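User: Structure tokens for both sequences below?

Assistant:
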Amino acid sequence: MRHTALTFCLIAAASLLAGCDALGIETAPQVAAKKEAEGMAIGSACRHAIRSIEDCFNGNPKAGKAAVFAGWKDMDQYMRENQIVGMPSEPDAAEPSPSKADEAEAPSDPNANAVRSHKS
């Protein structure tokens, strides 16, 4: 009977300790591996978007430079081996160019400017 209780306690303790991963508690090596993987992903994305490594570093200051460079270099080698053409990224849609913003605000009715200037 005594061995059964001891065995049960050991099994219960082992199952509780195994559940620590389910709580989302990350260890230092897990955090480091995650940061390195994110840096490599950022670097490879920059290379595929035909961005220079310097632009990639400037655009992602919190990412580790070594990991970003390793990802950029790996993607560069992969793209050369498989003859993949990069896809340039599009400019941010949130910041329209001044000429497009002026066109968007320009009224289609020529008399609308006269009305607008009298109200101001």
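Moving on to the next sequence.
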Amino acid sequence: MIYAGIPEENILIRPDLKEAVLEAKRIGLAANIMATYTCLSPIVTIVSKEAKKVSQLISSMISGK
């Protein structure tokens, strides 16, 4: 990432996958999660669950329930 010209202060390293996803969600900015091949399946699961929660929240807000 540094070699790609991304300033070091803009790079956050989180060893816990769920913590990384939740922090990116909390910040509310676009985030790139760089994971090893081994971590891809767990990351997809975590992100999918979080996306479903957001979708349900938006649906409930629209329907007024």
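User: Anything stand out in the second?

Assistant: Residues 15-63 form one domain.
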